## 1
Amino acid sequence: MFRRISALIIVATAAASLLIFAPNLDLPIGKLAASEDLQVKAKNLSLVCPGAIYQNDANNIGEFLQTGRASISRDFAGPTGTELVFEDEVFTVLDPQGVAAQGSALLTANQTQLVASASANGLAGAACQNPSSDIWLVGGSTATGRESLLILRNPSPVDATVDLQIFGEEGLLQLQGLTGISVASGKSVVLPMSGLAPKAKTFVTHITSKGGAVAAWLQVKSVRGLQASGLDYISPSMGASLNQVIPGIFIRGAADAAALAAANSDYADLAQIIRVFVPGETEANVKIQILGANAKTFGTVIVQTLKAGSVTDVSISGLTDGDYVAVLDSDVPVQAAARLSRTNKTKVPATDFTWLQAAQPIDGVRVISVPAVGISKLSVVNPTSAAVQTIVVAPGSTYRFDKPAAALFANLILDVDGMVTNIPVIDYQNAGGAVKVSVR
C-alpha cells in the first residue's frame, strides 16, 4: 500500500511540474505551411487510333469484330533523347528527361480505311486522340438504316468507369444503362447507340470517365434499302464557344443528290446540315454564314433562335457544287458540326458522307500528316477577313502551319475514288510546368 501511495505522489508531482514548466508551443490552427513551387514534367504524349472498323459478328448477336486494316499516317520529330513507340494502335513518345515541347510538331497521327463490302461501304478517317476524361461527340443517327457505334478505348494502366449523357431535340434524354460502364485497362468497348438512344436521328453524346482517361469515336454508317452507302468516324468536338468555324464543306454532286432525294425519301439526308447543340440553360441566337472559296460559289446566311439544352439540325441545302466554310456566331456558347454528303450516281454505292467538327484555332505551329492515298485538300479560313482558301497537298506529305498573324481554322478533306472523309488539324499537349505544393 505504501508503495502505491508513493507512486501516485510521484506521478502527480511530475504532472504538476509539466504544467508549470511546459514550453509555450504556439501552433496556429487552420494555417498552411508556406507552399513551394515544384517543376512537374508533363506525362509522355500518347495518341490512340481507333484501329480497323467494327462490324457485326455473324455468329454472336450484339458482338462486334474489327475487319480489314486501317492505314496510319504519322509524323514524329522528337529531339535527341526521345523515342517513338507504337503498340496496339497507340503511339507514345518516350521522353524521360522532358526535353520535347509537346504538340503536333512533335507527333501527329491519323488513320483511314476504304471499305467495300455487303454491310459497309465508304471511306472512314479519324485523327488519333490524346485520351481525355471529358469528350463530346457531335453527330450520328440511329434512325432506320443508320448505325452509330460508340468506340471507347482505354490505353491507361488503370481501369476506367465511363458515364454517358445523350442530348436530343428535346434536351437531355432520360435513358437507362448510361452510367457505370467499365472499360478495362488496355481494352476497348463497343456500344451500339441504337440500344441506348433508339430511332434518334439527331443527338450529341457526352462522355466522362473516372480512373483512366479514354479515347472515343462514333463509327457511323448508312444503309439505303439493301445497299450500304456511307461510312465514317465522328471525332471529338473542340468544345463550346461563342464562335465556331467549320472548314471543308466541299460539295460535289449536288444535282445528283437532289435527284435521288426526289425519287426516294431514304436519300433525304443527302442535304448538307449544320448540327448545333446549346449546352446551357439559355436559348441561343445563332447566325451561320456559309462562305464560298471564290466568286463562283455563292453562300448563304441563316439566322435562328435555338432552344437551350437541345440539338438542332440546320439545313444548308440549295448550295451548288463548290468549296465552302461555315462560320457560326452565337450569343451563348454552342457546339457545332457539319454533315457533308458526297453523291455520284454513276458509282455503286452512289453516296458517302463525313462529319466535320468545328476546327481548333491555329494560333501557333501546327503539323498534319497527309494520307498516302487519294486527293487531299486543306480547307483554310481566316474568319476575321472572311478569306477562304483551298490548298492541294501531296499524298504522303506533311503540311506545316507556322504561327500565323491571325488565328486560322482548317480541316483536311480526303477523296478516294469518290468517297470522302476528313482529318482535323489538332494540337496535342499534356499539361506540365510549375505546381504549388503545401505540406501539413
## 2
Amino acid sequence: MLEVTPENVKDIVEQDCYILFYFTATWCGPCQKIKPMIQKLGDGLTTDTLRIYMVDIDENDDLCEKCGITSVPTFMLFKNKEEVGQCGGANIEKVADLIKPYC
C-alpha cells in the first residue's frame, strides 16, 4: 500500500486508474485494526486498474478538507478525479464490495 503525502497527491490523482484512498490516523483503533486487511486486499490485486493509497489525516489536511473527511477510517474510490463511491468504518466486506466492480 502506497502513502499519500502533500507533495505527491497531485501526481496520484492524475493517474488513469481507479484510486482508493484509505483515510486513517495512527491514533485510531479501528484504523489500525483494518490496516492489515487493507494491505492484504491490495497485495491480492492482480491488475493495475486499481491502486490503494493510505492517507494519514494528520499529515494531509488539504486533501481531507477537499474530500470532506469527518471520521476515520473512510474509504473513497475515485476515477479521473471523480468520486465513484465511498464507505466508512472498519468493515472489510464494505471495502471489498466498494472496489469489486472495478478490479
## 3
Amino acid sequence: MFRVRHRGKGDGGSTLSSSLRNGNQLPRMLGPFDAAALVISNVIGIGIFTTPGLVAQLVPHPLLMLGLWLLGGGLALVGASAYSELAALRPRAGGEYVYLHQAFGSLPAFLSGWTSFAAGFSGAIAAGAVGFAAYLSHYIPRAGDTRPLLSIPLFLGTLEVSSRSIVALSCIALLSAIHLCGLAPGRIVQNTLAGLQVLALLLLIVLGFSLGHGSIKHFAVFSGTAKPFGLLLALVPVMFTYSGWNAAAYVAEEIREPSQNVPRALALGTCGVTVLYVLLNSVYIYAAPTTELSRSINTGELAARALLGERATSVITPVILVALAGAISAMILAGPRVYFAMARDGLFPIPLGRVHPRFQTPVAAILAQAIWSGVLVISGTFDQILLFTGFAVVLFSGIAVLSVFVLRWKLRNEPRRVRAWGFPWLPAIFVAVSLAMVVNAFRQQPKPSAAGVLVIAAGLPVYWWFVRQVSQGH
C-alpha cells in the first residue's frame, strides 16, 4: 500500500546520531505484528461505543454515516503513510516529536511532547483507568464508588482518594510495572490484549447480526438531510475515535527493519481498525435507526440492549473492559518513548532519557508518566485537560504530516526507503482536514480551546529553562 523501496538490509541504525550509538538506544525487539497490535489497541477505546450517537445526530443518513467512518479510516491511512516515510527516514523513539524537531526545530517539537506528557497520553490514561473502574463496578460495586476515603487539601484544589480512584491507580500501576520490566513481558501482554479486543468486537458483531433482534430496514430510514457542514462537523468525533493510528511510529526505534515493518504495522493496524469500525457501526444501525442512535451518548449499550435485551450488559461490559485495558496498556507503552526522546535531546529531565541496563526500557519515563497520570486521577482534572487539549492531537499530527513536505526539501539528497502514498495531494488533504478540524474546535468550543492553548503555552518557560541548561553545559 505504501511505496517501499528496499536498499539493502538497513535497519535505520545508520541514521542514528552518535549520541544514540554511544548509549541510550532502545533494543529492536518488535516485529510488524507486535507494532500493529499496538496500533489496534491504541485506537480502540471507549470512543467507538459513544461517538456514533453524535455522528448520527449530524449525519442522519445511515449509508452516509457508514461512508463517513470509512472516510475517517481512509484519512487515518493517509496519515499513516506519511508517518511511514518519516519513520523510515528517522527510525527513532518519539513519533512526531522527532519529525517536528527535524522539520521545524526544537520548540514546536518540545511543545508537542510537552502536550503529550501533560495531557495527551497521561490524561487519556487517567480517563481510561477511571472508566475501567466505573465499568468494573458492574461486577464489583465498590470499584465504582466515588465517595472520598481520604481528602488532601492543596493550594490549587483537593486531592480525593475514593474506591474508584484506587482501582484506577492500581490499573495504571500494574500495567506500568509490566511495561517497565521489558519489552518481552510487555509485548506478550499487549498482543494478548489486542487479540482480545479484536476477538471481543468480532464476537459482538457476529452476535449482533446472527442473534440480535434488529432490522435491515434501518439502513433505509433517514431522519433528516445530511448537510456539508454537518459532514465536516461529524468528521471531528470520527477522527478522534481513530486517534492512535500513529502508535507504531513512537516505538520505531524498537522495531526490527523499521523501513519495512513500520509501514506494514501502520497499514495493517489502521486497515484492521477501519474494517472493525465500519462493521460495528453497521451493527448499531441494524439494531436501531439513526433517530434512536442520535438520542444516546452510550451507543454501544443502546444497540446491545436493542439486539440482545436483558443479556446486553453481560455482553457489552466485558467488551468495553477489554477495550479500555488494551488502550491503557498501549498508551503506557507508547507515551514514555516521547519523553525518553526529549530527555535524550536535553529537553526533559536527563534521567528520563536513560535505558535501564537490565530491563532495556526507559524506566524513569514510564514512572514519570504513571505518577502524573495518577495525580490526574485523584485530582479529578483529567476530563477537563482532555477537553481543553483535544484539538492538539489533531494539530500536532497534522503538523507532522506537513513535515513530510519540509523534509522532502531539506533532506532532498537523503535516500528514502518509503514514500508517502499519493504525495503531494493526499498528504495535503490530510493537513487541510486537520486544519479545518482545529478551526472548528475553536469555533464550537472557544473557551476550552483557549484553555488548551494556555496548557500548551505553559510549556514555553519549561522549554526555555531546559535550553538554558543545555547551553550552560548542565
